[in-house]
Design goal:
By secondary structure, the chain is α+β, with helices and mostly antiparallel strands. It has helices at 4-9, 11-20, 25-67, 71-106, 146-152, 158-164, 174-193, 207-212, 238-242, 300-317, 364-369, 393-403, 417-420, and strands at 127-133, 156-157, 171-172, 197-199, 204-206, 225-226, 231-233, 249-251, 257-266, 285-295, 322-326, 338-346, 351-362, 372-374, 380-382, 384-392, 405-406, 409-411, 424-425. It binds one RNA strand through residues 41-43, 45-46, 48-50, 52-53, 55-56, 58-64, 66-67, 74-75, 77-82, 85, 249, 370, 380.
RNA sequence: GGAGAAUUGCUCGAGUGGCUUAAGAGGUACGCUUGGAAAGCGUAUGUACCCCAAAAGGGUACCGGGGGUUCGAAUCCCUCAUUCUCCGCCA
């Protein structure tokens, strides 16, 4: 969420930014309401602190009066304090509702898009930042989509997943399961080599963590909620990992913090049915290796490029044709200032599949989480947080299976063979 | 799941209603001392918000979270979380 002080001082810049997110004039009014409520909050606090101060002084006096035996004076003063306390209670109530009103408004304001973000309403307006790297596979007319191939080679059983749980929970088997594990291992090794500390975080988080990363309150319906304990199944490892330093003040020398984590990801997003969500294209449970960084604000865009390079390196090693999109304002996630999506080409479906999303959140998450660092002068600043998928498994599997199909079977890319222990699935 | 004990600042740790402006120790920073270091001595050392044009200064809140009793709570009560010990169950 944005800081009120930032809203006060950069109104014009914010309005320009929100226009890219297709905000109406009506919605812009929220900005003014925020400032009005914040003014009110200050006014109430000044008044309230003043009363509390008087109560504190009087209480001390009462103690002294009792000690010196002046019961009458003490009791008179007690009455005064009681009156002050009534006033204080009223102000406190007012403060509470003002603050929650203010938060409610602040939660509605998304991050301000970076200058580079193109305006636009939907994914059709995304900018192709880097077009096709690699060659589109030439599979011929009899190319099969991955959902047929995984069936043919007994790699994944979707029907059993439905039996056990429901749609969107595939069961990987044999070489399918092994290939998946090989990819995870490969991704983690790549991240480790790039200096990310490997973590194995909790896959269920509490409410505070979900709020910290911006998954609550906005996207409650997208997460699985464990109501008995008020916990949430993570939609991505970004949630537990980014929350590691929630409400912390780091030393400037501690930055950057670089973390990587493998996790299953759970997403409710009760989807539509049809070809574009068929097979591995969209799931309720999938696996992903995530990279996360907490960095000095002056470095965050440099680091964003570094993360892009990291993801590109992996896709090149896997020999998958890919392209990079720069998301437009309308497609940008709520918390992000700039996002690049990676898409790989899936040869039989003949379409691009999103396999990674790399974002700079600037201070949007760190402000919610109160994640700061102290500079040499002892001044505190919010860190910038970034994260990216490196990578999400199912669509990598889908394109890898489709693109590498041959009359002999599915050819395993060279780089994975030491992890799989086999070079073909047939 | 049951019974008991605990949670205090950067760390350890004292603190059973006003004498706490949270003792004391350690750590850290700076200064003094020294040929240099150590020791010693001195000073400082949290977070958030508010007042003030700013600085200086002042105020409020914070002793695991939330609520309550009281003129006054780290201290008493309720509740939740976490940690430890024992019992039960368990991969």
């Amino acid at each position: 969420m944005l800081q009120v002080s930032f809203i006060r001082e950069n109104r014009q810049q914010i309005v320009e930014g929100l226009k890219k997110r297709v905000w109406s004039e009506d919605q812009m009014n929220i900005l003014d309401q925020i400032i009005v409520l914040d003014d009110k909050r200050k006014e109430i606090q000044t008044e309230h602190d003043d009363i509390l101060s008087k109560i504190n002084t009087h209480s001390k006096t009462i103690g002294e009066l009792f000690k010196s035996g002046k019961q009458g004076e003490a009791n008179a003063l007690k009455t005064t304090v009681t009156e002050l306390k009534n006033m204080s209670a009223g102000l406190e109530e007012n403060m509470k509702s003002t603050k929650s009103g203010l938060d409610e408004l602040l939660f509605q304001v998304p991050n301000i898009p970076n200058q580079l973000v193109p305006s636009g309403n939907s994914d059709e307006d995304n900018e192709v930042f880097k077009d096709l790297v690699g060659d589109l596979p030439d599979l011929g007319a009899e190319a099969k989509p991955h959902w047929d191939l995984v069936n043919e080679y007994n790699m994944i059983d979707f029907a059993l997943g439905v039996k056990i749980t429901g749609a969107g929970f595939p069961l990987y088997m044999g070489k399918g399961a092994r290939l998946q594990r090989a990819l995870v291992q490969f991704f983690l090794d790549e991240a480790g080599d790039a200096g990310y500390l490997e973590l194995n975080p909790p896959f269920i988080v509490n409410e505070a963590s979900a709020i910290g990363t911006g998954n609550l309150p906005d996207k409650e319906g997208q997460m699985y909620h464990v109501t008995n304990d008020n916990f949430y199944l993570i939609p991505t490892a970004e949630v537990p990992v980014t929350n590691i330093h929630r409400e912390e003040i780091l030393a400037e020398g501690d930055l950057p913090k670089k973390y990587t984590a493998f996790s299953p990801c759970f997403r409710r997003e009760a989807g539509s049915y049809g070809a574009h969500v068929k097979g591995l294209n969209r799931l309720h449970q999938f696996e992903k290796v995530e990279i996360v960084q907490m960095v000095h604000p002056s470095k965050s865009y440099e680091v964003l490029d570094e993360m892009l390079n990291h993801v590109e390196g992996i896709l090149k090693k896997l020999e998958l044709p890919y392209r990079i999109l720069r998301l437009c304002g309308g497609d940008l996630s709520f918390a992000s200032a700039l996002t690049y999506d990676f898409e790989v080409y899936s040869g039989a479906q003949k379409r691009w599949l999103e396999v990674s999303s790399v974002s700079n959140f600037e201070t949007f998450q760190s402000n919610r989480m109160k994640m700061r660092f102290k500079d040499g002068d002892g001044k505190k600043h919010l860190v910038h947080t970034l994260n990216g998928s490196a990578l999400a498994l199912p669509r990598i599997m889908a394109s890898l299976i489709e693109n590498n199909q041959s009359s002999d079977g599915i050819i395993i890319p060279e780089v994975l063979r030491k992890y799989t222990g086999f070079d073909i699935i047939n």
